[in-house]
Automatic annotation (TrEMBL):
One of its GO terms (molecular function) is xanthine phosphoribosyltransferase activity. This is Xanthine-guanine phosphoribosyltransferase. The keyword Transferase applies. It is an enzyme of class 2 (transferase). CDD domains: PRTases_typeI. The keyword Ribosomal protein does not apply. Its EC number is 2.4.2.22. InterPro entries: PRTase-like, PRTase_dom. It comes from Methanosarcina thermophila (strain ATCC 43570 / DSM 1825 / OCM 12 / VKM B-1830 / TM-1). Keywords: Glycosyltransferase, Transferase. The lineage of its organism: Archaea, Methanobacteriati, Methanobacteriota, Stenosarchaea group, Methanomicrobia. Coiled coil: none annotated.
């Protein structure tokens, strides 16, 4: 029921200016793209020490990719370069840094 309701809603991006473009995608699309990326990582032979999800839109893909890779070490950070309503800030800032020491880690 909820899924049908969500599919019926048209995704929209709201911003104070028309120059901000974004594409909202469904969970199924996030799942599909995460699987593709996990397969590419596996095929490349790359073995990260840590997966870093970037908030806000990267939390779910980060978790999915870590699951597909059967990888437990997942952390996150939040970077801001937009103010409210998608207005670009002059400087990027890390609002919530990575909460663990990643010195010497491959991510």
């Amino acid at each position: 029921m909820l899924e049908k309701k969500m599919q019926a809603q048209q995704p929209r991006c709201q911003a104070e200016n028309d120059s901000f473009r974004c594409e909202l995608i469904s969970f199924n699309e996030v799942l599909r793209l995460s699987k593709i990326l996990a397969r590419k990582i596996k095929a490349s032979g790359y073995k990260p020490d840590l997966i870093v999800a970037i908030g806000r839109g990267g939390y779910v893909p980060g978790r999915l990719i870590s699951d597909f890779l059967l990888f437990d070490d997942l952390t996150s950070l939040k970077i801001e370069h937009y103010t409210r309503a998608a207005n670009i800030r002059e400087e990027v800032r890390i609002k919530f840094p990575i909460p663990v020491d990643i010195t010497g880690k491959k991510s």
